[in-house]
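User: Sequence in, structure out. Go.
Assistant: Echoing your sequence, followed by the structure tokens.
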Amino acid sequence: MMAASIFPEYPPQTTIDQQEFLLSSIKNWSVLNGLATRPSPTFVPTEVDSSGSLATTAPVTFFPSLFPRNCFDEARFIQQAYNQLYAAIARDRTWLKEIVEELIEVDDFIARLWNVHLEVEKDGYVQDLSLGLFRSDYMVHQDVDDTTARPTIKQVEFNTMASSFGGLSTKVSELHSIGNLTLGLRAAHIAYGPSKSNPPHPLCILFVVQDTETNIFDQLFLSVTLESTHQIPTFRLPFTRTLDHTVVSESAHRTLIYTPPHSPLTAYEVTLLYFRAGYSPTEYTSPTAWQARLHLERSAAIKCPSILTHLAGSKKIQQELATPDSPHLARFLSSRVSADVIERIRSTFVTIYPLDHSEAGKTAVALATDAEKAVDYVLKPQREGGGNNIYGARIPAFLRELGDDRRKWRGHILMELIKPPALRNSILRNGKVKSGEVIGELGIYGVCLWRNGKADERGWEDEGEVLENWEAGFLLRTKGRESEEGGVAAGFGAVDSPCLVDL
């Protein structure tokens, strides 16, 4: 459901000649400046581009979209506190264990990720540092019953892994008129310290990527900046080739050594693993894939994210924080930020319910199985990436398909739908332009480097500490109103930039 428009008339009316000029300018500028992706097989068949040589303009809007300034400023202001929150969650293994154990019976992927953590824990973690390149996603919410109320931001989700388009977001802002994320990667690289190998190896950062990556240019903005500006060797390792090109040393340090296949005479010690793959169950199609993830997690390389930070990004965590009367937000943040900031974070939550046997869960089941009430909600599984959510009227039928086994229901959360104000724009995707009503989703990036803390002989575990923490820019993704998902890389939305307005 979309609220009435709160914005002035926008975008401007254009003639056919002006539209053709804009289209030509966008396509040319995008290719010239790297605002591009590899074309999907649905746009350019594999047999036409079997070598993966072609590039096409990234999905992009014709005009920057109107966005309330107060919402934009608020989202950026609270990002550092959100970084603190999720760093604290990832460090609290006891609480994470309680949450994950609720999901193990109903979500095999979460269970396997947790097993990787347990296997590493048996041998002991050799790396005490973790890096988070986070992105908190919001939509503007307008009270449909009070059109005079000031718009607010409501959180869609918090991404702890594969927070993509940080590179392209800088380019689309240039089109409509990188450094912070690369500074985070650089900070972790420096924090790793000198080589722990004997004799010492040269150091590098390793991007763990998918075999076929359409979003490669976004990632290259980061890696090229690391190499050209910061002189840090950076390599791309397909997740499926992990065991072919890396080894973990048998020393107490368990250093991760990478040998580039194109330069086999030089071995590098990996300071940082930046995961842009490994977040979806479809990437773990064999035992070898799980062996590769365990292999990397055991090593001394700093992970972005670590397996525990990956788990902290599950929708169940978001639900635990946002369920009415939840005490967890204050518990994690009361010693780190002011009470005012905690309440400002809480105000970004919409109501989220579990689908379990609790009182909140019983309320959720009643809402989700009622066709008239379900239209105001979205059903989400514990998954990263787009294309996994069930919306509105489709929810009751989906739950019926799951059957009477309520364990399967517990693998989902029920989230109140956000009501964005009406807005119009035009989107270029796969060479075609579509115009009409759109919905924007603002992502705020955050960088956080922290020390996890260690247990002593009595089993006590210190809280660790945050070493670096900053807000690192933004990404506006826009989709057609008829589209339920907003992920650009997943094939739904388009990159955009905000035109801030005072309301």
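User: And one key feature?
Assistant: The chain has 18 helices and 21 strands.
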